[in-house]
Amino acid sequence: MDYSRPEYYTNREISWVRFNERVLSEARDEQIPLFERLKFLSITVSNLDEFFMIRVASLKDMVHAGYEKKDLSGLKPKEQLKQLGEVLHRFVDLQYETYQKMLVPQFACHQLHIIEHHEELNEEQQKFVDQYFMENVYPVLTPMAVDSSRPFPLIKNKSLNICALLSKKGEHGDLEFATVQVPSVLARMVRIDSEQNDTVTLIRLEEIIEKNISKLFLNYDVIGASPYRIMRNADLTIEEEEAEDLLKEIEKQIKKRQWGEVIRLEVEDGVDKRLLKILKKELNVSNEDIYTIRGPLDLTFLMKVYGMEGFEDLKRKVYEPQQVLELPSGCNIFDAVKEQDILLHHPYQTFEPVVQFIEQAAEDPKVLAIKQTLYRVSGNSPIVKALARAAENGKQVSVLVELKARFDEENNIVWAKMLEKSGCHVIYGLVGLKTHSKITLVVRQEEEGIRRYVHLGTGNYNDATAKLYSDLGLLTSSEAIGEDATAVFNMLSGYSEPLGWNKLSVAPLWLKKKLLKLIEREKEHAQKERQARIVAKMNSLCDPDIMAALYEASAAGVQIYLLIRGICCLKVGIESVSDNIYVSSIVGDYLEHGRIFYFENDLEPEIYMSSADWMPRNLERRVEIMFPIEEPQLKAKIMHILDLQFRDNTKRHILMPNGSYQKKSHTSEERLCCQEEFCKEAKAAVKKSKSVKTANKRVFTPKMHEKG
After folding, report:
1. Considering Cα of 344, then 350, then 354, then 359, what sign does the dihedral take?
2. Shortest CA distance to 485 belongs to which of 439, 437, 451?
3. Chain segment 41-83, per-residue pLDDT in tens
4. Residue 458 and residue 610: Cα distance in Å, rounded?
5. Does residue 351 sit in helix, strand or coil?
6. 132 vs 179, 210, 211, 273, CA distance in Å?
């Protein structure tokens, strides 16, 4: 059987757009509070921006380089761009239909009015807006004319601008072009004070500028003015082998992001054709890369609207992450972890124990060394501060700061320099690889000798996103894992490649082989009519070898249940190929970010968690870690997590054989939202101090067996 046939696979980029459509479906769901819907729409816009800057830009680079190799679905880069362009234009239209027809009409029902165009302003509002412009906006603006002595200026990536067509007063000569950037240092949404009623009235900053734009060009008549926005290629090309200093090389490349090729131009519907012609020529943009927007550009301003006070009844009640029962406030984390392995489930349980793990290690006189990998951290990270304090306290502190973490490069450079000044040994990662693993090792001198404590996670060491991302972590003092953790850091800091591993599987050399071996074992069990099942939860699935192995296992009779939040290039329902594969995707209030892999193994189930998705970049071009969950009570907890997610009938979308996703309906059964249920369970556990009962063996059996 040839499992590499193009018709067996969905294009990676098209699959991503379908994921963003699932996010948009939350904005279109009338059962969700209005302001939560605004938030989801805003998220689809920021998602799309990054997609253009990286994925679309990468395809354009391939076309420019004459790269003709086909992807898994049989498309060349040029063909991918063509199909993608059609899909993306339709998606953007759907975004604005959602905003204009589904959300804006709801504002008036809740005493909120967003002025879409300055011509709607009444006399009182016009006075307020004009005064606001002169006092707060005018001093900040820098209008830029374009003529023979002043070339077309650099338009910054993602910036919002207003272009204008000008004619000198009293003359009827050539029209001139000018542009002004809408300053990002000022609030995008401006509240108009009014004593007339209780309605909150807002206007966007670009509308204030456009209304007063003639004040920037006093000797000219403004023939026409319109907002526009560009997206540039932001995919950094770093020649690591040739770079003498990786940190300086990345600092240099970050600056080039503002100069990258323009890959998308957004203009307002109705823009003067003469203005559009100038923009198209000066920015070197083709027609297919121009997006005519029927509404305000850059809907991420909706996140600012979401953050306004006074509309709490239109938002979900903020959930407070609950205490981890095994780690009561004020406890000694090392004593607790010495007794048992502890599973952490964020954001339902607080991320605080992870922070305290580092903070206690920094102050504990018994701690000799702390070693940690940092991929993304928050802007005011307590973990980084604790690491710096540990070094100042004389402990050996080694930190791998991944400088190549996309769009966090600048932030990570700042932290790397700060940690070095504090006396930490900072590693910048390995040449040609990103270090994406999430691991912390604390070495402690105890009465019985040296003991190692390890934290392994599926998410980042970011205390801010830990409240928004659904992730898992393990705290353990396992001797075998401790030895492996030491080997990981020796590999990262030097050239020590271990001969073997006790418990961990590490990419790029060992992890993929381990996964393929586990899938193969399930296939062999099925062929021998033993119990065989694979359940895997991840962000994305697009590795060709893994997908071919899953097809082969499915054809042998292995039941395969996949929970994939984002990209899934595998297809379901192909006769004799994938008719035993069922794919679901959960899009909810929290970003599903955990990776869990379950292999039934003929009633001797093995469960793993990992920092890695099943993608070539994770398995072949990154340092990733997969680790086993072996304690029966922890295995039961994870099986419960999977069980609830597969029973979700509120936020779960099911992949159909035609490649579309259908949202699971709860019309004929009791409503179940797994994320809400996890919140309730975490609260109940703290309230009642219950512990989860478990059996030594339990077979995972999803309640939903949809074939679509």
Report:
1. negative
2. 439
3. 999 999 999 999 999 999 999 999 899 999 999 999 999 999 9
4. 5
5. coil
6. 21, 13, 12, 31
Record the tokens describing residue 449, joined without a space.
Answer: 């000798």
Q: Do 446 and 583 touch, CB atoms closer than 8 A?
A: no
pLDDT score at 196: 61
> Secondary structure of the chain: what % helix, strand, coil (to 5)?
40, 25, 40
Q: What are phi and psi of 664, to 5 degrees?
A: -65, 130
Burial class (CB in 10 A: 0-12, 13-18, 19+), 48: buried
Distance (Å, whole) CA 141 – CA 382:
37
Q: 346, 353, 358: which is closest to 321 by C-alpha?
A: 346
Q: Any catalytic annotation for residue 436?
A: yes
Average pLDDT over residues 376-403: 93
Going by C-beta distance under 8 Å and a sequence separation of 6 or more, which residues neighbour residue 433?
A: 508, 621, 622, 623
**Tokens matching residue 657:** 């054989």
State percent of the chain over pLDDT 70. Answer: 94
In order, the DSSP letters of 425-448 are EEE---TT-EE---EEEEEEEETT
- Within 10 A of 698 (CB to CB), how many other CB atoms are there? 14
| Residue 596 β-bridge partners | 537, 609
Where are the strands (E) in 299-390, listed by range? 342-346, 367-374
Token output for 410: 């600048």
Of the residues 118, 436, 593, 653, only one is catalytic, namely 436
Residue 155's Cβ-count burial label (10 Å; 0-12, 13-18, 19+) is buried
Amino acid, res. 76: K
What sign has the CA pseudo-torsion 651, 679, 315, 49? Answer: negative
In 369-470, which ranges are continuous DSSP H helix? 382-392, 409-421
**Which candidate, 544, 433, 641, places its Cα nearest to that of 70?**
544
E-strand spans in 240-366? Answer: 262-268, 290-293, 342-346
CA atoms of 569 and 349, how far apart (whole Å): 32
Domains observed in the chain: 10-116 (1.20.58.310), 120-294 (3.30.1840.10), 337-502 (3.30.870.10), 506-688 (3.30.870.10)
Of 451, 391, 381, the C-alpha closest to 420 is 391
pLDDT of 706 strictly over 50: no
* CA 250 to centroid of chain Cα atoms: 22
- Among 196, 186, 199, residue whose Cα is nearest residue 311: 199
Pairwise CA distance, residues 418 & 390, whole Å:
13
Among residues 247, 242, 251, the alpha carbon closest in space to that of 420 is found at: 247
> What phi and psi, each to the nearest 5 degrees, are found at residue 585?
-140, 130
Phi, psi of 706 (to 5 degrees): -70, 130
In angstroms, the CA 98 to CA 28 distance is 6
49-58, 91-100, 239-248, 368-377: segment of lowest average pLDDT: 239-248
Asked if 388 contacts 362 with a C-beta cutoff of 8 angstroms, the reply is: no
* Confidence (pLDDT) at 694: 40
pLDDT, greater one: 372 or 65: 372
11 to 6, 101, 181, 513: CA distances (angstroms): 9, 31, 37, 25
> Alpha-carbon distance 396 to 392, whole Å?
10
Evaluate the omega torsion of the peptide bond into residue 347 and state whether it is cis, within 30 degrees of 0: yes
pTM score, whole prediction: 0.92
